[in-house]
Amino acid sequence: MRVSESASAQAGVVGSMREGVLAFKTLLTGHDDSPNNYVMMTNRTGAGGWTTPRHRHNFDQIRYILKGTYPYAKDKSLPEGWIGYFPESVRYGPQDRPEGLEMLTIQFGGASGNGFLSVARREAANEILKTKGEFKDGVFTYLDENGKRHNQDGSEACFEEATGQKLTFANPRYEDLILMNPSNYNWIPEQSEGVATKTLGTFTERRTQLSLVRLELGAVYEPGQHEAIQLLFLSRGSVSLDGREYGPHTAFEIPANEAPASFKSVARSEFLRLVLPKF
């Protein structure tokens, strides 16, 4: 198991591929070039906001709104406390994030097996591209060897620079984003006393699983052993694990087929739990 606390997490900002300031803290990452590579991070919009054009990705995303309202497309928003599943190949945007918006973002390889390009490789590509052209309003503009002008989505340009491959998209499995209001779900008690779960959804043939788990004071939670990586994000409360106490915005990775950990709540607590696609 790996554990990452927000206070000691690596901080950074998204590069010039987008307009504005978006600061992030990287909690956990997977392994590059594997189909289930991932990143779990918290984001906060800086002064002046942060914008993107309408676009899509070749990977999946989970977005959990921690503070504020997230305008994910024109006249469409995700309120505080809501959770969105952003499937690969499905377009969204334009985004116009307001200053102070905070969310948990998990980006990971989707069912197609295209994987996920790490943030580190993307940002390195961003720096190289700045020497070859210009980023403006989320679009990368450059001149080819014949002097012809080209415009390309900034994220797409970074992917192609980093990998040397043309970005391709799988046929979308969903027509649109899947937006969830957890307050409309019921808590279902588990066998362990004081533990309850809201199952939000299971997605695609790879069985990506998303849920919330609540622990009453003193309750013991064992996530169980799975064939795929499990990710836990402690959104509120505090828990103890192996004699150490962890507070809000702590992230946990349980590798595939690893024996379950045992969490004990020190205060009433809640996890977001994601089981990544099985490959």
Description of the structure:
It is a single chain. The chain has 279 residues and is mainly beta. The chain is built from 2 helices and 22 strands. The strands form 4 sheets. Strands 1, 15, 16, 17, 18, 19, 20, 21 and 22 form a 9-stranded antiparallel β-sheet that branches. Strands 2, 3, 4, 5, 8, 9, 10 and 14 form an 8-stranded antiparallel β-sheet that branches. Helix 1 (119-129) crosses helix 2 (154-163). The two termini are 19 Å apart.
SSE diagram, text form:
Layout: E1 2-5, E2 10-13, E3 19-29, E4 38-52, E5 60-67, E6 70-73, E7 76-78, E8 83-86, E9 95-97, E10 102-108, H1 119-129, E11 134-136, E12 139-143, E13 149-153, H2 154-163, E14 178-180, E15 188-189, E16 195-203, E17 208-215, E18 220-221, E19 230-241, E20 244-246, E21 250-254, E22 263-275
Antiparallel strand pairs: 1-21, 2-3, 3-4, 4-9, 4-10, 5-8, 5-10, 6-7, 8-14, 11-12, 12-13, 15-16, 16-17, 17-22, 18-22, 19-20, 19-21, 19-22
Helix pairs in contact: 1-2
Quick tags:
279 residues, mainly beta, nine-stranded antiparallel sheet, eight-stranded antiparallel sheet, 22 strands, globular
Please report the distance between the alpha carbons of the first and last residues: 19 Å
Oligomer: single chain
Proportion of helical residues: under 10%
The description of the largest β-sheet is: 9 strands, antiparallel
Beta strand %: over 45%
Mean pLDDT: 96
List the total number of helices.
2
Shape: globular
Q: Unreliable stretches, pLDDT < 50, 5 or more residues? A: none
